[in-house]
Amino acid sequence: MGFDVATATLSPPRPRGNLLTGHLAPMSRDPLGRLTGFAREHGDVVGLRLLHLPALLVSHPDLIAQVLVTRSAQFVKSMDLRSTRMVLGDGLLTSEGDQWRRWRRLMQPAFHQECIATYCRAMTASAREISSRWRDGETLELRREMTGLTLRSATRALFGADVADEEDRIGRAIDALCRLFDLSSAWVYLLPNYLPTPTHLRALAAIRRLDRVIARIVTSRRARGGAGDDLLGRILEAAEGENGRGSGIVRDQLMTLLIAGHETTSAALCWIWYLLSQHPEAEAQLHRELETALGGREARFEDLARLPYAGRVIDEALRLYPPAWLVGREAAEDTQIGDYPVRRGTTVYMSQWVVQRDARFFPEPERFHPDRWTQEFSRQLPAFAYFPFGGGPRVCIGAAFAHTEAVLALATIAQQYRFTLVPGARVAPWPSVTLRPRHGLPVIAHRREPAKGSGGQAAGCSPITG
To answer: Strands, DSSP E only, in 199-306?
Structure first.
């Protein structure tokens, strides 16, 4: 039985908006600042209007839990995320209902801990290969380098494929798509994606480039027999029973995994390196841990427990600069959040950027402080005060994969290099599909002296077909 909104009289506070566009224009100009301002000035539930469409901003962990967990069956993906279907089709991120449940169950085992353990060689090898082409004192565009690293890692681990020779083309295509959804995150309500605007035309060309990459990966696997224990093998086998829709399903799932499987981790690594470059005391503490735990050798999966400070650095970077910075759900029926009625069709927004910088839950919220992440602190933290990977039934399927990859990449590279920003570089967050550095991340690479006892390669991980 849905909440009876007809008899409800309570309504949330609402900031003053434009008569025609509501709150759309200010949110499109400065999403992070406006969302933060709305929450700090008006409270945990704020009424908004995007043109004619009603919306709510919800900023308390208990209320977020209602949307993502206890009442999740009453919500579907929001319109702005559904607009990504022009790229992702009916992949795991955008599909709903039985189709989503079927594919989620099929893919989930590939992200269990025992499988992630077998991916570590691909992860460390990708970090080693990328960093091996750098030189002491060289200026790097680190966002580009991290994109290459995570592309190699994801495609090798999940698809048994190698796209090293296509990294630049894939990176440029994904940049074009991010620009499309930077625009449509605010203006999707005005401009259908099929209109031939310059932004849409560039995006369509980018989609065609990525489709060709996916087609080559699938063709190569099928030429080798198609079967396999990795995620691509599972997808190909399951798609055979899709009544003529198999090739489309394969394309949609692989496109989702290709983009989501590397873009969030790439963005996270950029922010990690940026924060370490600005906090030399944290960087020094990280180096001490790596020297003690690894002594110059490559990190292995079983080393993760011996690198607690590296994990805290990642957790704190994800808190301050969450790659997934906004979650949206649309009410599929009349319901409620807390004491407030929510009409069918209302979009509910929950922002990791806003909640994870809330002083109620994080003392000195703007400070980069990895050591805040003690076991005691984590235990007392409300469940949705920190949700960089979302939550509920649709929590990110690759959360453990991404965290493991980030630790191994950090351990591999930080043993060899530290980074300083190029003088005069501007670093600002760009809230698009993910939260990326708007102007890239230009840095100078400084070679570190190898630790005593250095030598030896990673061992103990199953090989990855590549």
So the answer is: none
- Give yes or no for a contact between 154 and 188, defined as CB atoms under 8 angstroms apart: no
Phi/psi of residue 440, nearest 5 degrees: 75, -170
Q: What is the DSSP letter of 226?
A: S
Q: How many CA atoms lie within 13 A of 350 on its CB side?
A: 25
Question: CB of 408 within 8 A of CB of 108?
Answer: no
Edge-to-edge strand list for the sheet holding 45-50: 45-50, 53-58, 347-350, 327-331, 75-77
Which helix (H) or strand (E) segment holds residue 446: the answer is strand 442-447
Q: For residue 437, what are the β-bridge partners?
A: 429
Count CB atoms within 10 A of the CB of residue 438: 13
Please classify residue 306 by burial: count the beta carbons closer than 10 Å to its beta carbon, then call 0-12 exposed, 13-18 middle and 19+ buried.
middle
Distance, in Å, from the CA atom of 168 to the CA atom of 391, rounded to the nearest integer, reads: 33
Calpha distance 170→193 (Å, rounded): 21
CB atoms within 10 A of CB 460: 11
The phi and psi torsions of 326 (rounded to 5 degrees) equal -150, 135
The number of helices, as runs of H, and strands, as runs of E, in the chain is: 17, 12
List the Cα angle 112/401/294 in 5-degree steps: 105
Cα–Cα distance between 419 and 158 in angstroms, integer?
Answer: 30
Cα–Cα distance for residue pair 153/164, rounded to 1 Å: 10
- Token output for 444: 């100078």
Name residue 393's amino acid.
P
CA distances from 113 to 68, 134, 152, 254, 426 (A): 24, 32, 20, 21, 38
CA distance to 138, 352, 369, per residue, from 135 (Å): 5, 36, 30
Local confidence pLDDT in tens for the 466 residues of the chain: 445 555 556 899 999 999 988 998 888 889 999 999 999 999 999 999 998 899 999 999 999 999 999 999 999 988 877 778 888 899 999 999 999 999 999 999 999 999 999 999 999 999 999 999 999 999 999 999 999 999 999 999 999 998 888 888 898 898 888 877 775 455 554 556 666 778 778 888 999 999 999 999 999 998 887 666 789 998 998 888 666 567 899 999 999 999 888 899 999 999 999 999 999 999 999 999 999 999 999 999 999 999 999 999 999 999 999 999 999 999 999 999 999 999 999 999 999 999 999 999 999 999 999 999 999 999 999 999 999 999 999 999 999 999 999 999 999 999 999 999 999 999 999 998 899 999 999 999 999 976 554 444 333 333 332 3
Whole-prediction pTM: 0.91
